[in-house]
Amino acid sequence: MYEQTHRTTATRDRGRTDYRRNSAHELLDEAYHCHLGFTVDGEPRVLPTLHVRIGETLYLHGSTGSRPLLAARGDAGLPVCVAVTHLDGLVYARSQFHHSANYRSVVVHGSAHLVTAEAEKAAVLTALVEKVGRGRSGASRPPHRRELAETAVLALPLREVSVRTRTGGVREEPEDLALPHWAGVLPLRMVTGRPQPDAGVTAPLPDHLRPELTPWHTPAPMAGAHVRLEPLAESHVDGLWAATRDPEVWQHLSVAPPTTPDDVADLVRAALDAGWQGERVPWVQLDAGTGEVIGTTSYYEVNPQHRRVAIGHTFLGRRWWRTGVNTEAKLMLLTRAFEELGAERVVWHTDIRNERSQRAIERLGARREAVLRRHRQRPDGSWRDTVQYAMIADEWPEAQLQLRKSLRSAVPAGR
């Protein structure tokens, strides 16, 4: 427990105040930034900044030329107040007076001192980088001497610390309970979006930025003699553009033919956004011999509860048609679905006018089940009927044998 002082003792709603160390540590560690309050020439200042807690010290990041860092050089340090707040919900009451918010906050008072020891400063900066992503310090360049000289760190001992929280629902006056107004809590939470790589980045997305996915939603790498499947990334855009310039590739697909690399980039971003939201599992297809980008394919309509998945969003460079690429890619996707994920059903959808695609799906051993009328709108605005095929787990053993047999006589990729 932190000792109560006159600065940390609440004057109202004392039941919301907490002095437990683990409560304060949890809130400080969860937050990525804080607000640093101090005075300059008798006037208040509040600055947002990054922080990290190491043991019983809160470290604050700043520039060597900033006012608080300059003031903290003296022996007495800089008197500060640091606040961190997590807003968890908006509380709507029947009366305006009782509208409120659910929150968790921690406030720290004390004197901050400039960190001058090089080892301590280096450890703090590493901890700051590790806070934004475990393992990130080993996957980025450390600061050089000039950068270290331009960076300052303040150390604030955790001594005067208090935690305040508000949880629960609406608190109303008894006479307001019969009012005909909606009341309740709107939960709020901070979520991460899909990481957006900088221009020119070819490195794969690091593990600390990947979402936690079920095996069903994970684009696990797979390799065969003709084709490799790897997680799709923005770095594959130029390769996809080069491989799929033939207009015939895009005939009967549910997207407009791209006319520029930017159009392909939009398709890739859409696939990755859908993957981030759990709606799709996108792979890039690579020529197993040359490593060239040759196309893409995906799982979609992923349903682990009912053990089913669809295969689609597939396009392949014209040069790799009638080779072993498509057969082997589908063999790997089916093997993963039936043997690794335990699927009971795998589905395909194709435009009723796309007879070439229908023949290819039938050669996989799938059965035509239905025609879904006016199932999807084509890029030109017309409505398409969709032919649905499926393979169930009982049909997989025989289909697998036939697929492996056909691969033995398949034309090598790229020929």
Q: Please tell me the CATH architecture of the largest domain by its name.
A: 3-Layer(aba) Sandwich
Elements, N to C (H/E): EHEEEHEEHHEEEEEHHEEEHEHEEH
Total domain count: 2
**Can you identify the CATH superfamily of the largest domain?**
Gcn5-related N-acetyltransferase (GNAT)
CATH topology of the largest domain: Aminopeptidase
**SS content category:** alpha+beta
Enzyme class: transferase
EC number: 2.3.1.-
Protein name: Bifunctional pyridoxamine 5'-phosphate oxidase family protein/GNAT family N-acetyltransferase
GO molecular function, one term: acyltransferase activity
Protein model, in words:
This protein has 415 residues and is of the alpha+beta class. It folds into two domains: 14-187, Electron Transport, Fmn-binding Protein, Chain A (Pnp Oxidase, Chain A); 214-408, Aminopeptidase. It contains nine helices and 17 strands. It has helices at residues 21-30, 67-71, 118-132, 145-150, 237-243, 261-276, 325-340, 355-363, 396-408; strands spanning 17-18, 33-40, 43-54, 57-63, 78-92, 100-114, 151-157, 160-166, 184-187, 222-223, 227-231, 280-287, 293-303, 308-316, 345-351, 367-377, 383-392. The strands form two sheets. An eight-stranded mixed β-sheet has the order 10-11-12-13-14-15-17-16, sandwiched between helices. A six-stranded antiparallel barrel has the order 2-3-4-7-6-5. Strand 13 and strand 14 (308-316) form a beta hairpin. Helix 5 crosses helix 6 and helix 7 (325-340) packs antiparallel against helix 9 (396-408). It is elongated, with a radius of gyration of 29 Å.
